[in-house]
Write a structure and sequence with these properties.
Length: about 260
């Protein structure tokens, strides 16, 4: 295949769903800008993907730092055709017991960095009359989540934000898609300190990040507004819409409590 000359930017592109999305973009001959905190992981991922005959730029940034998120926008010097806001974190535990600064960092990363990057690149895309943005939401965004109260709330923001901006820019040539995975076999739960949770004890029930990425990528290319990855997750979200939020919260409390 011949390089199509177009560029895609992927945050959190060195592992999990983000890396799988980067692979799909590389297979379609998009040049890549990969953004993550760890320079060694960025270099390793770039080496893997450059074998596809594409260009790969790496930028090491901690996007929970708002100044670094803004600096990223200034440093990108090529027109970005596709933006993937994948970088995100959670923390496990009771809200009153979790460290405040850790939770504020999650809000900065999951919400503020998404807003900063989306605003910058959506304006550039609109000026060209074309572009696609994929924001990593979660089924968590539709479900109040005890033991991960802040994370679930950040994903509710991502879903609402993506849907609203999509409507505002429906005539701009820019599409916005929210990908909503459920429990997926990535390092997210380890980083969140969630390995004792009942919800992640059964590894066999976890989704494959490659399958989730494929669902999101196909929805992105089709310009769909959102996609829930996995039949089980679709059922859970549908059921939650006919249950009182208090009942959903209790159900999640039981599902996510420590074993």
């Amino acid at each position: 295949m011949e390089n199509n000359g177009k560029w895609a930017l992927v945050t959190g592109g060195t592992s999990g769903i983000g890396k799988e999305l980067a692979k799909l973009l590389a297979n379609d001959q998009y040049n890549l800008i990969l953004v993550a905190r760890n320079e060694d992981e960025l270099s390793q991922t770039a080496s893997e993907l450059q074998g596809s005959g594409i260009q790969v730029q790496t930028i090491a940034k901690d996007l929970s730092d708002m100044e670094q998120a803004k600096a990223l926008c200034r440093e990108v010097s090529v027109p970005v055709e596709i933006l993937v806001n994948d970088a995100g974190q959670g923390v496990y535990g009771l809200f009153t017991e979790n460290e405040l600064e850790r939770e504020l960092g999650i809000i900065h990363l999951n919400i503020c960095a998404t807003v900063i990057l989306t605003k910058h690149f959506a304006k550039e895309m609109a000026s060209r009359g074309a572009g696609k943005i994929l924001n990593l939401g979660s089924v968590a965004g539709k479900l109040p989540g005890p033991w991960q109260a802040v994370y679930h709330a950040t994903k509710a923001f991502v879903l609402s934000f993506t849907t609203a901006v999509r409507e505002e820019m429906k005539d701009s040539g820019v599409t916005f898609t929210a990908l909503m995975p459920g429990v997926t076999d990535t390092d997210f739960f380890n980083k969140a300190g969630m390995n004792d949770s009942k919800a992640v004890q059964d590894k066999s029930s976890m989704a494959d990040p490659a399958d989730v990425a494929k669902d999101g990528y196909e929805a992105l290319l089709a310009g769909e507004d959102r996609v829930i990855s996995g039949v089980k997750n679709k059922i859970q979200v549908t059921a939650s819409t006919i249950m009182p939020d208090s009942s959903v919260a209790h159900q999640l409390y039981e599902q996510q409590k420590p074993v």
